[in-house]
């Protein structure tokens, strides 16, 4: 596969401390600027100390960004749940869209599951969505999140 091919990556993580609105805005501002520079698009969702992010762009840029995310001390239990080549972007117009919810149950996304949230709260060391019913809904969940962000 060419290094410039498009790649999509989704991950979840747990905030090491409760970020303030200013903290979240700073994360969003830096991500927006850096993502524009590196031709990365996607969105970030936050609820109850859980980050859920989907990013897409050139494979080398996605791999570098994910490597940096793994070293970021503002979150822990960074778990990749999707890593696929894609033929076109789902979030082409967003260098970084953002949604914040007070409660996981407030997330208005069909197919969103507390599975990821419960995993991060558990003591489990690995997440294997291929062994769960949630694996079937990850792609649908991404589409539903995109539609929720667009308001369609």
UniProtKB/TrEMBL annotation:
UniProt organism field: Aliiglaciecola litoralis
InterPro entries noted in UniProt: Acylphosphatase-like_dom_sf, BLUF_domain
Highest taxon in the source lineage: Bacteria
Name the record gives this protein: BLUF domain-containing protein
Gene3D superfamilies: 3.30.70.100
A matching Pfam family: BLUF
Residue ranges of every copy of the BLUF domain listed in the record: 6-97
């Amino acid at each position: 596969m060419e290094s410039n091919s498009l790649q999509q990556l989704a991950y979840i993580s747990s905030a090491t401390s409760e970020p303030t609105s200013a903290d979240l805005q700073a994360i969003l501002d830096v991500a927006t600027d850096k993502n524009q520079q590196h031709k990365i698009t996607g969105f970030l969702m936050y609820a109850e100390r859980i980050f859920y992010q989907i990013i897409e762009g050139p494979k080398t840029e996605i791999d570098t960004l994910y490597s940096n995310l793994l070293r970021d001390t503002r979150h822990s239990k960074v778990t990749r749940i999707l890593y696929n080549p894609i033929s076109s972007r789902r979030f082409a117009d967003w260098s970084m869209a953002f949604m914040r919810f007070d409660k996981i149950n407030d997330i208005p996304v069909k197919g969103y599951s507390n599975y990821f949230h419960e995993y991060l709260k558990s003591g489990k060391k690995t997440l294997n969505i291929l062994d769960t019913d949630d694996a079937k809904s990850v792609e649908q969940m991404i589409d539903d999140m995109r539609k929720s962000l667009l308001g369609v």
